């Protein structure tokens, strides 16, 4: 018996509804069935994939029969043939030489940079003065990726670089789902702005490559140093163009996504005060243990001592996954779990929608970090929760990204509580290449009245039952 169902609405109404509200369209398609046919042309039939087992087929078991297709073609305009856009053989080759950048010992070293840069960013925040959180987080994660991956200082240029990233993201998003893709060489205002932004980013990248060639020892433990040492199949160094593509990939995929997730985290914590209180208790308990031992924890160890902060980020990635949609295309016919799909089939997988399945998560719209406590995620199907994708094309830097987000969250939450500036209303998701809050979010930092546990309180004590219950019914962010 087939598990593919036809969407009841017409092709024309589907098109306009998706263009107007892609997230709403995908969430509404979730209860329709495991695989939903959009009843598009027989030349290129399109399906929305909702069932975790079909997602696993596409991303893991049959990934060699699929390609990223249209989305990769558009992304190549900015990042070239880097890890995010390379197909099959090229992707496997690139992943092999990039994997050492994300070994555990290197991530522990990166953690120190994350903490240092976050504490610097905290000094720039002013008590009671509204801050544009998207800009603050973008510039912070840009500084971190430049220092950890490229050993490059961007302090003087980070605002211009962050603006250039924003332009490339907006132009890419506008193109991916456009019914008509104009050649990149055409001098339209959008293309001209996009190419200027790319030149801004390339100026930094090629400058870093030149500096690394002059003093390679200073870059030995960085992504850039690894790329300079990498040899191709003939034993020759890889070309500067390939180094540029990998650096551009890490620059865009490695900081914009984390910045967006962090803005969502601050917003969600504001609307779930019990979760925010639990986070503060964890931070205070860690600092109390440090004072008792007389030594501060190294950043890598601190990360491991913050399970609730990690759950906050994991829950944020459930409700607001940066990669809100994953596209795959099949050149040839495909058989999956008893159903056949014709040649040139396109598959749209939405973590944003699948993560909102009440049958899996229960009250899925609520922000409840405790879902991830005590191995809660192990009870879910493998691809019921997949904010970093999966298979060989899953995010190579997922552990770095999780560590970075947790330490930034902890370092700022230890000093400040953030409240949305009045007059903004509820945050509206904007599905660009990465999921962000539409228009950004102005938030007011308030210094915590006490650093550490309240007098006479046991910071390591578990929550009272009534507090746990209240957190379980926190309003949806």
From TrEMBL:
Keyword Heme: yes
UniProt biased composition (Low complexity): 450-460
Region described as Disordered: spans on this chain: 447-477
Keywords: Heme, Iron, Metal-binding, Monooxygenase, Oxidoreductase
Superkingdom of this protein's organism: Bacteria
Pfam families (UniProt xref): p450
InterPro entries the UniProt entry points to: Cyt_P450, Cyt_P450_CS, Cyt_P450_E_grp-I, Cyt_P450_sf, Cytochrome_P450_Monoox
SUPFAM superfamilies from the UniProt entry: Cytochrome P450
Protein family according to the UniProt entry: Belongs to the cytochrome P450 family.
Protein name: Cytochrome P450
Organism whose genome encodes this protein: Paenibacillus artemisiicola
